[in-house]
Amino acid sequence: MKVVSLRGFVWPWAAQHLLATTHQVISNVMRVPIGIGVHTGNVFIGTTIAGEAGVQAIHFLGDNVNIAARLAEAARPNEALISEAACSAACWKIADLERRELQLKGKACPTIAWVLD
């Protein structure tokens, strides 16, 4: 699973665009059952270099990355779950979106997410 986290104002739009593009590109063939999780916050980024070829891997760590990953796991095929924090950071209008209260693994309190499909 690839988790990307930068500034919150970009990712709700990017998730919506990714879903639309995925539907458009493969609609005549089949649907790829992807789920997207979007969250915002501080993360730790590190790199490792391994082997003689110097293959580099980038690692994203921290609670906020885990929340995005858990949202992606909870998303149904072909939908994105956007955390309340990401919607707030993006000043995104959520009035018309479905609201879900999720119990994410490792979290004591429910997480509020909004659904894009």
Topology:
Blueprint (H helix, E strand, L loop, with lengths): L10 H16 L8 E4 L5 E7 L4 E7 L1 H12 L4 E5 H6 L8 E5 L8 E6 L1
Parallel strand pairs: 1-4
Antiparallel strand pairs: 2-3, 4-6, 5-6
Describe the protein in words.
This protein is α+β, with helices and mostly antiparallel strands and 117 residues long. The protein has a single domain (11-116), classed as Alpha-Beta Plaits (2-Layer Sandwich). Helix content is 29%, strand content 29%. The chain has 3 helices and 6 strands; from the N terminus they run αβββαβαββ. The chain has helices at residues 11-26, 63-74, 84-89; strands at residues 35-38, 44-50, 55-61, 79-83, 98-102, 111-116. A 4-stranded mixed sheet has the order 1-4-6-5. A two-stranded antiparallel ribbon has the order 2-3. A hairpin with a 4-residue loop joins β2 (44-50) and β3 (55-61). Mean pLDDT is 78; it is low at 1-10.
Domain unit count: 1
CATH-derived topology: Alpha-Beta Plaits
- Gross morphology is globular
Beginning-to-end CA distance, first to last residue: 20 Å
Number of separate helices: 3
Main sheet makeup? 4 strands, mixed
Order of helices and strands: HEEEHEHEE
CATH structural class: Alpha Beta
The Rg value, from CA coordinates, equals 15 Å
Helix proportion range = 25-40%
Relevant CATH superfamily: Nucleotide cyclase, GGDEF domain
The overall average pLDDT, rounded, is: 78
Structural category is alpha+beta
Q: Work out the strand percent.
A: 25-35%
* Count of strand segments: 6
How does CATH name the architecture? 2-Layer Sandwich
